[in-house]
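TL;DR need structure tokens for one chain.
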Amino acid sequence: MTSGKATFALRHGRLDKGGRMLAREIAADAVLAREGGGWGLRGKVTQQGKSAGSLVQSLNIPVAADFSERLRLLKAGIPSLSASINGIPVKGDLSYQVAAPTPLAFRLDLPELPLAVLARSFPVKNLTIAKGSVSASVRGSGRGAGELRGDVTARVNSFQGAYEGKKMALDDLSTQAAVSFSAGKMAATGSLKAVGGIFAGKKVAASFDYRVADGLVTLNNGGCAVDRTIINFSEINGAIPKNISAKGESRIPITARFTGGQCRLDDSGVAGLSGNLNALLVSAVGSRRLEGEGTVSAPSLTYKGKGVGSLAARIVLAKGKGTVAVTGKVLGGDLNASANGDPFAAERKAVFTVNLAGVQGAGLPEVLGKGRPVQVSGGALAVTGTGDYSARDGLACRMAITGSDLALIGKNGRTLLTEGGLKLAGEWKDGNLFLQEGQIVVGKETAISLRGKIARAASADRDGEIALALSRVSLTSLFDAFANILPRSLQDATAAGNIAMDGKLRIKGKETAVTGEMTLEGGALEVPGQKLSISSINGAIPFSIDFGGKAAVKPPEKLSFSRGNYPRLLTVMQQPVNEKHLLTIGKIRFGTTEFAPTTLALRAANGLTEMTSLTSGIFQGALLGRAHLRYQGGVQYGADILVNDLSLREVCNSYPSIKGYLSGRVDGFVSLFGTEKGLNEIKGLVALWTRSSKNEKMLVSKEFLQKLAGKDIKGMFFQADRPFDRGEIGAYLEGGYLTFDTLAITLTNFLGIKDWSVSVAPVQNKINLDHLLTTIREAASRGKAATGSAPASSEKPAGSEFKWEE
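>> reply
TL;DR here they are.
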């Protein structure tokens, strides 16, 4: 054919599929005419006007083709394509050259557009989009429609939105893939990466490589991070499911395998995870089930960087039932557990059993960390449990924890307890923990029982009480059980009598408090190393400790002490107190000092334990007082004691080295406040003064005056005991020292002139409190009487520990 021309035209065209209108008002024009040595076709396909209601809203496709003289196709193409499909703009081009090695080449681009526009065509249930954009592109070539290769890229930027009401965001999500299609089969190899993600306040990131080929999907070198939880894997692969229908049933084979799995939270988790699943998903009218089996192994379990064991699981799936059997080693113990249920049942309920036996306590400090104040360091523990879980009712189970030959150590590695035992039996239901039977065995005789309930135990607003009880037991056995816990000063102590205890452990949210009372019968304590002896202890000691410190009430207001208000305070302290709990002590002896029978009135509530009244006697005088104890970031305590009508002569006569030095009656007060950290943390003040009575005048002996002078002087002043009209001590306690503001003995004559005075320089004189207590303990054996009633010592007088001012 050497000449000619053909014109083609289409107007008001419409394209439908499956009853849905894809495009309407399509117009097409084309002209075939002689061009050079051959023929050319030039044309365009467009959509006229706006096509509301159709999938394609706009269309512009220019078409060009070149033919030989005999109308054989040489090349064809779409130089530029643009369309709007459901509001989504698409651009691209296509070319086909018959003589080229790869005749077909094409490009398709999705320019960056708001995610909300794309979501109209591809909605996701419960997902709302507030911000973000998406873009994509496809580049390809090939011999024809049956053999293609190309690259696909897609990216989501700056996404913000919410899923099921939970806020989520993503800085960047991208994927790149090489895709091929040949002989009716498709293959793709690529990678996916998501960074800067946030979901429900937790940071999220993920990446992995993937391959789809020969009916298999393979993921490699993957990782996912959700806040502090990190999941990695070497490979996950599985067959692309294909539906097989026969005899009214649909069967979909499910095969999967994974290796090199790792999941960790900080330095705890599982490594070396591997497993497989071979199953069939069988569906029929009104029913679905899984049939098949699988395995999972976790050869390395770690907790805080320490190995704690290994696990292996076998899964068996049958009609109406799925079973998982787990075996392994955990902390040296053997684990056997199983669970079974129907994953497609309406109730979605699973029944399980757990049996963990032989957990070695010796390995716990390494796993849990050595910084804890008290830890299990020996013995064996076991856990058993049975129960069920359902989507409707949650977890319900019965469990028991037992321990034998348990040993406890302190923070410094010191052994606190041996031959301990533990028995706990309880139930978990509706989120509540019921402790039906509990017992903590300490030593051979001492056992503390526990029983109670904690509502909403796993939530932040947990609330409940655990009753504590110690049946009547000898103090001797109690001291033996806690021998290693006792302070060194009590290591050689011996005890007698009996003790019992009832109490409650109160748990509310993060706060924990314990209240109750201890009852003593015929109690006695001998501490030879401290020269302390206490006997005939009878009565009840209430206690209330709030370990959070927030609910503990404030201690009573400190008394305002002064010599002027002493008579008023004395009257108050002498008033009888009506308290439910009284503790009586028949005898207290410390060194050479012996106290009269002592009575304590006690009460406890709201995190505060109080001694509302102390009545005792010493050196012919009376001790009256009150005290308190509470927990506020540590143990805090305080005491206010009034001294009334104490005999100074009896004080001196009790210590051979100062016997006969002074006489007179003493009044005053002592106020103390301290913490659990020891003597160095005690603060307080001491004020004592002397007065004369009918039976005891204020006198200072000549021996004392000579000792103060530092040598034996025979002058008139030292020939007889001297009267004095002022004897006063004022001191404060801080940093482990008793520092004297005032320590004076003076005589003033009737003219108001000071006849003589003995005093120390204020503040410059102090005594170490620990040394003072040691001196009192050892006073009975430190020296001989320094009065005229005993032979004079041949030893030189001891040097004064005070800087005497006069």
